[in-house]
Amino acid sequence: MAFYLLYKVVRRDFTYQIPLPFGVFSSFASSLIRAILKFIVDFAVIIHYRHPYEIGGLYFSLNMFLPSLGLAFLLASDLAKGSLSESTLALLSSLVMILGGSLVTLFGAFLLLMNKEYRHTFLSIETGGQLLRRLFLEGDDVSKAQVFKKNKILWAPIRDKVAVWVKEGWASWEEENPDWFTDKWKAKVPENMKPTKKMALRVEKGASERQAEVEFEFGGGGGEEKGQNGRRKSLSALIMGHKAASFKVTPTSGVMKKESEVDEVEFVREMKRRGSFSM
Fold first, then answer.
1. Contacts (Cβ under 8 Å, ≥6 apart) of 7
2. Which one has a higher pLDDT value, 263 or 124?
3. Which one-letter DSSP state was computed for residue 55?
4. What DSSP string describes 209-273?
5. Among its keywords, does the record have Transmembrane (predicted)?
6. Would you say 130 and 52 are in contact if contact means Cβ atoms under 8 Å apart?
7. Which of 3, 15, 213, 236 is the right S-S partner for 277, CB 3.0 to 4.6 Å?
8. pTM of whole model > 0.85?
């Protein structure tokens, strides 16, 4: 048990995954949880506890061989002291070889027969913190959102990146309201990571401007206008949340006035340049 806890400390994987207050309580709770999990794995060998958040893949696999190694160590120690009879020595030696050989054979067959995509999980040296940070850096928003359900110590090295992700995405999450963006999740986000009201309004205003669009409808007129080879052009736009008025350009001599045509073209060109609407 002491070796296992020391192993977790050296790997910087001692703090347990669940959110815990910093300080003595966190250390005590992590020690208790780690000890209980190790006890369960020693006697029940529950393979789900090979997860990086729990025992860890490689240590879980090696842990199955520790009883045989411990027995071999005691046998060698007693043999050095000369406290074992020849019959006892022969019996214990046979027992160690049988147990060790059986474990190696069965575990090898177990790895060989399982689905290939799971084999690496029994040999992985990835810690819980490394897994959480990798999922955040490589995953989508759903994966990134899980970071606030884990202990802050695990994602402390990427705290700045987490803060940037929250501030940049908060406005769109408020609008789209994904399933994970709940009041409970919001409460777990540190206040200094949440965007201020001024920043949120600025982002929302920018999004509204980008979404504004102008629609042009061209069509031939009817009746008298069609007989005069007239052309009607109506502009219906939504710019900055206000609907532009429709207007009609009707030529007086069968040819549109050049000045009006130039003004309209320049207007469209300028609006395209500013990126305020899409055609």
1. 59
2. 124
3. T
4. HHH-EEEEEEE---THHHHTT--EEEEEEEETTEEPPP-----SSSS--HHHHHHHHHHHHHHHH
5. yes
6. yes
7. 213
8. no
